[in-house]
Amino acid sequence: MKFAFSATVLTKYPAQYEVCAGCGFLRVHEPHWLDEAYSQAIAAADTGLLMRNAALASKLAGALYWALNERGQGQLLDVAGGYGILTRLLRDLGFNCYWADKYCANLMAPGFEYRPELGACRAVTAIEVLEHLTDPVAFIEEALATSGAQTLLFTTELYEGPPPDPVAWWYYSFGTGQHIGFFQRRTLEALGARLGLHLASANGLHVLSKERVNERVLALATGRLASRLGPWWIRRRLGSRTMSDHNLLLRGLA
């Protein structure tokens, strides 16, 4: 790792950012302020939380249905699932999704917390997680081992070339202190190679999987038109779980 630039985090802590010339991984050197940064699991400044989850549920539905051939029979796990918004949205679209998060309360999908006795999952989703981690490799290994899955679908903003201008790139999120790792495509390729996983990436959605995922199909399935029309069609094909989940919860069976 070589020094890239310095910045002020949480308006008071000096931070040094360093980059790997080999794979482009950019990170904060020793982010000692994380306990303070996570006094709330989700930063109050994350005003895009609901809009982002709604958009990503549509995009994930297309990726799962067309690129991974998931037809609602396999279990999914949304790891680091926050308030449970995405878990609830995916269940509403017909996917058998469960929630897990070590640091946040499940407000929107209670009763659908993942537990090992449910069995192996078809895939794991991790939305806007990797940029928060001091050790992405360990996180992915644990998520896949815990769930029994061989596929991870995730989002994180990628950059190209040298580290982006600290003044211009909003994704550094200096004010919250929670974003500490940043990736290029070649970083994700190196990450996949280390874990024995293949990378596919399109329209801001990334997939690491034991089996190769057709990137062209992924691009079509997560494009603007598919993301607008696909969820309606997928929900009709799979059948929404909204009312069946309602009845399960009323009977205390979830």
What does this structure look like?
The chain is α/β, with parallel strands linked by helices. 33% of the residues lie in helices and 20% in strands. It has helices spanning 34-37, 49-67, 85-92, 136-147, 185-195, 215-221, 224-238, 242-250, and strands at 2-9, 13-19, 26-28, 75-79, 96-100, 123-127, 151-155, 181-182, 198-202, 205-209. The strands form 2 sheets. The chain has a 6-stranded mixed β-sheet with strand order 5-4-6-7-10-9, sandwiched between helices. Helix 2 packs across helix 3.
- Global mean pLDDT: 96
Termini Cα gap: 47 Å
Count the E strands. 10
Known CATH architecture: 3-Layer(aba) Sandwich
| Number of helical regions | 8
Q: What order do the SSEs take from the amino end to the carboxyl end, as H and E?
A: EEEHHEHEEHEEHEEHHH
Helix content: 25-40%
Specify the overall morphology.
globular
Number of domains: 1
What CATH calls the topology is Rossmann fold
Strand order of the largest sheet: 5-4-6-7-10-9
Estimated radius of gyration: 18 Å
Return the CATH class. Answer: Alpha Beta
Q: Structural class, from secondary structure content?
A: alpha/beta
Tell me briefly what this model is.
The chain is an alpha/beta fold and 254 residues long. It is 33% helix and 20% strand.
Jot down its keywords:
10 strands; alpha/beta; Rossmann fold; single chain; six-stranded mixed beta sheet
Write the layout of secondary structure elements.
Layout: E1 2-9, E2 13-19, E3 26-28, H1 34-37, H2 49-67, E4 75-79, H3 85-92, E5 96-100, E6 123-127, H4 136-147, E7 151-155, E8 181-182, H5 185-195, E9 198-202, E10 205-209, H6 215-221, H7 224-238, H8 242-250
Parallel strand pairs: 4-5, 4-6, 6-7
Antiparallel strand pairs: 1-2, 2-3, 3-8, 7-10, 9-10
Helix pairs in contact: 2-3, 2-6, 2-7
